[in-house]
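Training component of the fellowship. As part of building independent skills, the fellow (R.M.) carried out the full modelling exercise for a liganded target. The chosen ligand was iron/sulfur cluster. The inputs are recorded below so that the supervisory panel can assess the work.
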Amino acid sequence: MNFRCKTFKMKKPGVNKNASNKFSSNKTKNNKIVAGLEYRLASLLIGMNVVWLALLRYKNPWRAFHLAAKVINTRDQFKTTHPKIAKRANKYYMNLHTPGWPSKAFNRGIHHSFNLVSQSPDISLFSVVFAITNKCGFQCEHCVEWENLNRKDSLSAYDLVTIIRRFHHMGISQVHLSGGEPLNRLDDILFILDSVPEGIDFWVFTNGYNLSAEKAARLKEHGMTGVIISLDHHEQERHDQFRGIRGSYQRALQSAQHVVDSGLLLAFSCCATNEFISMNNLESYASVCREAGASFIQFLEPEAVGHYRQKNVALNKKNKELLEHFFYRLNFDASYSGYPIASYPAMIKRHNGCPASGLHFVYIDADGFVHACPFNKKKLFPASSTILEKNIRSLRETGCSMIEFTSKSKDSAKTLQLHR
Ligand code: SF4
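Fellow's submitted model of the complex:
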């Protein structure tokens, strides 16, 4: 893949002076980013797994190969054909938004892709983001749930499980538990992990303030896949200021240590603002994440909702390009082979159309209402609806009013619309 960008000249990362031109494996504590031969072998086996699932499902070999190839090719559309992969225990993780392979969850995710590429009448989803609580003691600059924070939670632990079970029937293979601060409901999270049928990878998205070694160990023991910790700057003071809580940076890194030590996967999530984005900051940030043992970094763009409502926070063109360039560097440049794998959802959305709105995922708020995505504050229908599939189908057909396409991406967006 050609990822050259003429606009920005990149210097090599300072902490990686001895990087060879070839990709090499690099182990960071318990989490490992693998490249080279092991990456190629894993990719080959994953591809064979997809073909095998297609053969079992479609019987007709030509149709099976055709659809398997289509599914494999969509990886390129989502910019995940980078030459490295995360490994933990005996599973491989292509990116933050794909379940580990081999696993039942991975296979379920592939069946959702088959449904889309074959334009099957069956409605399925890949994942949900579920805000399980409104409670949170932080005052983050960008909080999308700002208006709802610390309102009473209306869903019991049983309600949470019932909702996830319903989406399990729709084929989901990944759940991101968010909030509020989801670890305020740790016991309920453990109850969910114990109660939901097999076939879903669970991640919890936390501010990282209150995750002890003991809590991390319990999450692991009950089947959590990984923890996403919000870290918005590599400088302590800047992060604390952004989060509105002194000491939050140190606590986030301490929690990261517990996550890695417990054997969970670690990801960091960064709200990349115009003030933050510079090549020096991005490089320093990625180095901190690597040193902490992270397998993934998620770059989120600020949106004018919640605490940022009516503020002009959208990234300017230059910063979007710079962040995009860094995304490619981190994932595809040999000098960064041991660095965490980056995701940049807003970029994928701009280029390929939105994966939310019931196409791949939906957002469920702490009152149990489905939204097109976490940034769209319109409550659409209850997740407990008895006509859930019908509602998701309508959502796909309606789409989301917030979508903004680049002119270049309109064709690929149309391709996605075909599957709606
Ligand atoms: S962004 Fe998360 S951690 Fe920050 S105030 Fe909102 S819910 Fe709390």
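The panel noted the following from the submitted structure. The two ends are 28 Å apart (CA to CA). Residues 1-28, 403-420 have pLDDT under 50 and may be disordered.
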